[in-house]
Design a protein that fits this description.
heterodimer; A: mainly alpha; globular; B: Globin-like; 9 helices
């Protein structure tokens, strides 16, 4: 797993500061997109009544997820320590199959491209892709 | 056999009918070569790929991007038989070009990102689902004849 270079970290921080203003809307888009494009992910939300993009639960949870990404950006220099609680949550409580981290990462990248087509250059894409892979890795730490 | 709904067919033909091959083809391949640099292994004859600027300015990359994107036309015209349509291309990529089939998925992801950037909010979840399903079928067909 490639580690983040100083340039990657810089690129991620800069891009995040550009996009974080729209984090809430993007979060809802990421989540609702994932539920449609990867229907198997709906299995984790069988307790929700409404899985449509306009659902209050989807919007709220999208916001929560983006806050998590923001937290990861802030704790970029030690993701394993920084995301310990979140890893425990995903491992012991939510029991999300880690394969899904790749799925949500992909949808994050798609929404970045849609919302910020000029800023989401190939260079930003590669750094964000690496960063999200590191986040997924940190989230998987406590699984077994 | 892959089943396509009328909506999916219409989404796919719609995307390709309004596509600028000269714009999106190069962008998708450039993105792939930058985001997944190991894919450069197949293009050693293309000249300068040393950095992002070089890749972006490389005319061989641009020409090849357009070629690859037009390669998808056959699948769009034969959505009910993509596997057979690409049998020959699959053999080519396996026997002659020796391309690891995982790369098809990587390029497909980059193409998705470029289409998303181009269409913006018009790239709805349903559009994304149809487009990704189409690309997944193409990717599978291209890997089918490997042995």
């Amino acid at each position: 797993m490639t580690s983040l270079s100083a340039k990657d970290k810089d690129t991620v921080k800069t891009f995040w500061s550009t996009v974080s203003g729209k984090a809430e809307d993007m979060g809802a888009d990421v989540l609702s997109r994932m539920l449609v494009v990867y229907p198997q992910t709906k299995t984790y939300f069988s307790h929700w009544k409404d899985l449509s993009p306009s659902s209050a639960q989807v919007k709220k949870h999208g916001k929560t997820i983006m806050a998590g990404v923001g937290e990861a950006v802030a704790k970029m220099d030690d993701l394993t320590a920084g995301l310990l609680n979140l890893s425990q949550l995903h491992a012991f409580t939510l029991k999300v199959d880690p394969a899904n981290f790749k799925i949500i990462s992909h949808n994050l990248l798609v929404v970045f491209a849609i919302t910020f087509p000029k800023e989401f250059t190939a260079e930003v894409h590669v750094s964000m892709d690496k960063f999200l892979a590191r986040v997924a890795y940190a989230l998987s730490e406590k699984y077994r | 056999m892959v089943e396509w709904t009328e909506q999916e067919r219409s989404i796919i033909t719609g995307i390709f009918a309004n596509l600028s091959y000269e714009e999106i083809g190069p962008k998708a391949l450039v993105r792939c070569l930058i985001v997944y640099p190991w894919t450069q292994r197949y293009f050693s004859s293309f000249g300068n790929l040393y950095n992002a600027e070089a890749i972006r300015g490389n005319p061989n990359v641009a020409a090849h991007g357009i070629k690859v994107l037009h390669g998808l036309d056959r699948a769009v015209k034969n959505m009910d038989n993509i596997k057979a349509t690409y049998a020959e291309l699959s053999v080519l990529h396996s026997e002659k070009l020796h391309v690891d089939p995982d790369n098809f998925r990587l390029l497909a992801d980059c193409l998705t990102i470029e289409i998303a950037a181009k269409l913006g909010t018009a790239f709805t979840a349903d559009t994304q689902a149809a487009f990704q399903k189409f690309l997944a079928v193409v990717v599978s067909a291209l890997g089918r004849q490997y042995h």
